[in-house]
Amino acid sequence: MSFSSNSVIAKSRAVFGRSLTAEDFAQLCDKKSVAEAAAFLKTTSRFGEALAGVDPRTIHRGQLEALLEKSNFEIFEHFSRFDFTESKWFFREIVTQLEAEQILSVIQGVADGSTDSYIAAVPTFLIRRSRIDLLELGKAESFEDISRMLSGTEFGRILQPLLTEAAAAGKINIRECERRIYTYYYISCMKMVEKGCKGAVKTELKRAFLKSIDMKNVVTCFRMKAFGYDAGAAAEQIIPFRYRLSRAAIEQLMQQPDIGRVAAQLAEIGFSVDTSAQFQTIEQLTERISLDYLRRTLRISRNSPTVYFCLIECMQIELRNVKTVIEGIRYGLPGSEIMEMLVL
Fold first, then answer.
1. Average pLDDT over the chain, rounded to whole?
2. Beta carbons of 108 and 174 less than 8 angstroms apart
3. Which of 338, 84, 318 is nearest to 196 (CA)?
4. Measured between alpha carbons, how far is 51 from 38 in angstroms, rounded to an integer?
5. Greater confidence, 87 or 144?
6. What 8-state DSSP symbol labels residue 312?
7. Are the CB atoms for 260 and 275 separated by under 8 Å?
């Protein structure tokens, strides 16, 4: 293992060591306003630097979340400048993932007739790094506009048939858009793993990606079941990579009557989780399974790409937790109720 690899691992673990603890989240959940939440986050080693110049009394929810998102992105960007190992390509894929989120947001906005809010919400830190003119994309008022603005890009290629169909029908299959976009994203990632990694590094990193994909596919299956689809239809909608989620496993999962039984079924195929925990949503269950694996792997792996990947995933889960807390505070939910919604 090279000096650079050792440095990436050490730096990743140092960043992870500043993560918000369960106690931090308990205190955050007890805050009564977004201003109080911002003031608390400003005292933490995890987000203190990002909020150093902020007056918590004047910040609103959108500004706070944007600063927290920017904080994560700047950590990833710093790694992209610092890292000269096999994990350097991850930063390009992070940008791709963020671009995908923005495109889906615009498509949903056109579908809902609510395009006015997009430009105000687009992350400014992403604008200069994206290969897509996000501000121009935000001006789209129709599916034809989106298709034209994405022309010549990979996103345009994979979405063009759906956008053309939507322009004629007046509605779009947003679930299929999401599936195609994230299939493209993961195919790109897996190609880079094959191209950029070797031996044990490749094996371990592929396993990490495939486990992540399995959990996303579990969510897809559970959602499709809720809409009355069978296992065959679900199998056609999942991302086409798998670790342990075989066709037989999908069929068994979709026969389970509730999330508790899904958790038990997942444990039987190797995705174990604390059996005493209660999960309100399928997303909460799958993220908890992922988080347990990510934390463990981040601590013990000796491969810098895998450690970096686990750090990225852990930080994104943490950020979703913080956003859930802020949303709960905004709606006046009790702290204990908000805590039950988190993945810790």
1. 89
2. yes
3. 84
4. 8
5. 144
6. H
7. no
pLDDT for 121 equals 59
Tokens describing residue 155? 């996103």
What burial letters (b/e) apply to 298-308, b meaning 16+ CB within 10 Å?
beebebbbbbb
Predicted confidence (pLDDT) at residue 49 exceeds the cutoff of 70: yes
Determine how many CB atoms are found less than 10 A away from the CB of residue 95: 19
- Output 321-327 pairs: Cβ under 8 A, ≥24 positions apart: 321/20, 321/25, 322/20, 322/28, 322/41, 322/68, 323/65, 323/68, 325/25, 325/28, 325/29, 325/37, 326/34, 326/37, 326/61, 326/64, 326/65, 327/61
Which ranges in the chain belong to alpha helices (H)? 3-17, 22-29, 34-42, 61-82, 90-112, 118-121, 124-127, 134-137, 143-149, 154-169, 174-196, 199-226, 231-237, 247-253, 259-268, 282-300, 304-330, 335-339
- Which tokens is 195 given? 């191209």
* CB contact at 8 A, 218 and 182: no
Per-residue pLDDT reduced to its tens digit, 59-102: 989 889 989 999 998 888 887 776 555 556 777 788 888 899 88
In the chain, how long is the greatest CA-to-CA distance?
A: 57
3-state secondary structure of 17: helix
Using one digit for the tens of pLDDT, what is the confidence trace for 240-267? 889 999 989 999 999 999 999 999 999 9
Distance CA 202, CA 208 (A): 10
